[in-house]
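Quiz preparation item.
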C-alpha cells in the first residue's frame, strides 16, 4: 500500500486492503477487525459526509481482502490531498497494524 489512492468526486469509491497477513507467520488474516478514517492531509481534520471510523468488511473466500464503500457525499474538493488511516486488529492475537495511505481527489 505505497501508491497514492485516487478518489473521484461525485462517485462512490471502493477502498480495498488486499492480502492482510500476520507478521508472525505470514498467514492470511480473514477474521480481523479493519477500519479506516479519512482525513485532510494538511489540516488533519476528518472528512465530512461519512461516519468514521468506517468498517472494511472481509471479502468472503479471499486471502485477507477487506473492502468498504466511501460514499459519493464525501465533502472533498478536486486536488485535495487526503490520508486514509487503516487499522487492522487480528481477532486471534489482538495484534494491531496501521497503514497510512496517501490519497488524491480528482474530478469524477
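Solution:
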Amino acid at each position: 500500500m505505497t501508491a497514492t489512492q485516487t478518489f473521484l468526486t461525485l462517485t462512490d469509491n471502493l477502498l480495498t486492503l488486499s492480502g492482510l497477513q500476520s507478521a508472525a507467520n505470514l498467514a492470511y488474516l480473514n477474521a480481523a477487525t479493519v477500519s479506516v478514517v479519512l482525513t485532510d492531509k494538511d489540516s488533519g481534520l476528518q472528512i465530512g459526509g461519512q461516519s468514521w471510523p468506517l468498517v472494511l468488511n472481509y471479502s468472503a473466500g479471499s486471502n485477507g481482502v477487506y473492502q468498504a464503500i466511501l460514499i459519493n457525499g464525501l465533502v472533498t474538493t478536486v486536488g485535495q490531498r487526503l490520508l486514509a488511516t487503516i487499522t487492522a486488529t487480528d481477532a486471534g492475537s489482538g495484534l494491531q497494524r496501521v497503514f497510512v495511505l496517501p490519497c488524491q481527489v480528482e474530478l469524477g
